Known about the structure:
6 strands, HAD-like_sf, Rossmann fold, six-stranded parallel sheet, DNA polymerase, domain 1, 5'-nucleotidase activity, 10 helices, 234 residues
Amino acid sequence: MPYPHIIFDLDHTLWDFEANAEQVLNQLYNEYLKELNIERSDFMNIYRANNHHLWQQYHEHKITKHELKARRFPDTLTQLGLKLADLDFDIHKLEHHFIERSVEMDAVFPHCHRVLDALAKSSRLHIMTNGFVEAQHRKMKSAKIDHYFEHIFISEEIGANKPSSKIFEFALAALDCTANDCLMVGDNLVADVGGAKDIGMDQVWFNPDSLDKPATIQPSFEIKCLSELLDINH
């Protein structure tokens, strides 16, 4: 029996953050860092590690959106051994260009459009994201997936990040349904799976890289490819 509602995370679940970010980071490296004797791979790897760490802190309300955006590039360049005061460009340009260019990228995970087409025939589809409000709608439009979704629940607008029960309760009220009517699909075991589980909602852990699953969190379902959702929602 299909779920009446399927709620998707966006980044790392439908919109391929890593693929899109890599394109933009390569552009920024070529424009700003190539002549500074910084290895491209070092820049990419350190940025990814910093970005992941800062997003985890943001999910946990340990830092603000402003702090995340203000730190990820300066922290990266500092760890690469650069003195920010000696740079001949404004470090804040990196963050500005990263956001503005990223939202124009259109890479999604394999089978994304086909799966959304099929699911939309039997279920109402929605987005729930901790991403920044100024970026998420533009990402979906660039990737040509915005038309699939009825409701877009953005934590920044609601005032609560996943995994807080507040954002899930807000969604249930907006959809006028119960947790049993919904399926949450996301890549983050804490924010997506844990948050949905805590409110009694079934969850799908999207795990394309076959990461090890900790014993502390057991999702309702685990998939490596979005196409597997069609076997779950039938």
